[in-house]
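Hello,

Our lab assistant flagged a job as stuck in the queue for most of the afternoon. It eventually completed. Since we weren't sure the result was trustworthy after the delay, we are filing this so someone can double-check. Below is the sequence as submitted and the structure that was eventually returned. Let us know if re-running is recommended.
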Amino acid sequence: MYASPNMARPFAQRRLSAGLYQQVGVESQLAGASPHALVAMLFDGFVESVAQARGAIRQGDAAAKGMAIGRAVRILEEGLRAGLDARAGGTLAKDLDDLYSYVAQRLTQANLRSDEAALEECQRLIQPLREAWASIAGSSPAQRGGQPAAAAPARPGP
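-- returned structure --
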């Protein structure tokens, strides 16, 4: 028998410390991130959460599946969808709102049914947006430090 509760769980403290370290790292990234980088982080977090949910389904871990899918839904609803400006975004904002709503619905169904195919569908629907968002990084003058396109340094060839 172990002498103390902490001795009974020798790896619990390491996991707690690693989790706190990761949280500090994320908070540091958030503090210095541009609006563009924040959206990219939301897309990355969504993809990571869906991957974690898929792994949890494969391992039969219902609690981890629920937590990962819940995080993915919150990223969609509270991050990506909440950031849409229907007035300024017009049709594009409306289409994205509809897509995010559909994906959140499919995530909920995936959670209820432990449906890995539904998670794959969600991933396939969001991935092109993630890639498109990444491709526009540094394309505006504000993101290049205010330099017009002609003054931006040329990228080296392949």
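-- support follow-up --
The delay was a queue issue, not a problem with the job. The result is valid. Residues 20-26, 143-158 have pLDDT under 50 and may be disordered. Helices lie at 5-8, 12-31, 35-59, 62-81, 86-113, 116-135.
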